[in-house]
Structure formats: C-alpha cells, structure tokens
Amino acid sequence: MSDISHSYVCEPCWYIYDPAIGDPEHGIPPGTAFEDIPDDWVCPDCGMGKEYFIAKLE
Fold first, then answer.
1. pTM of the predicted structure, to 2 decimals
2. Alpha-carbon span 19 to 33, nearest angstrom
3. Residue (of 2, 7, 14) closest to 56 by Cα position
4. Is 25 helix (H, G, I), strand (E, B) or coil?
5. CA gap 17, 8 in Å, rounded
6. 26 C-beta neighbours (distance < 10 Å), count
7. Distance between CA atoms of 57 and 45, rounded to whole angstroms?
8. What span, in angstroms and rounded, lies between the C-alpha atoms of 11 and 30?
9. Residues 6+ apart with CB under 8 A from 40
C-alpha cells in the first residue's frame, strides 16, 4: 500500500508535491502517492526528475 500522507519537495526549486492534490495538469490525479508517479515524471516548475525530491518533514 502506498503512502499518500507525505509531501515531497523538489530540492532545486522547492516545488511541493502533495499527494492529496497530485499534478492533474501533467496526468497525475489527486490521491497518487509519490512512489506511484511514473519514473519519467518531472517537476512541473523546474523540470528536474523524481530523484531530486525529498520527503518533506511535517
């Protein structure tokens, strides 16, 4: 089961991926855990890959 309770932040630009919101403009529906995003998805703000995201400490 994937965890949708944690947000992730893009280290280069500080974009926050919130699983509750997703990224609908780029095909990621609300409720999608970060781990379930396709590996070729990139940050919508700066274009960096998933490997540049870290779990946001709540």
1. 0.87
2. 5
3. 7
4. helix
5. 5
6. 11
7. 21
8. 22
9. none
Q: How far is CA 1 from the centre of its chain?
A: 17
Question: Across the beta sheet with 53-55, what order do the strands follow?
Answer: 16-17, 8-10, 53-55
Mark the ranges of the chain whose per-residue pLDDT is less than 50.
Answer: 1
Rounded alpha-carbon distances, angstroms, from residue 7 to 34, 44, 45: 8, 15, 16
Q: CA 49 to CA 19: how far, in whole Å?
A: 16
How far apart CA 54 and CA 12 sit, in angstroms, is: 11
pLDDT in tens, 1-15: 466 678 999 999 999
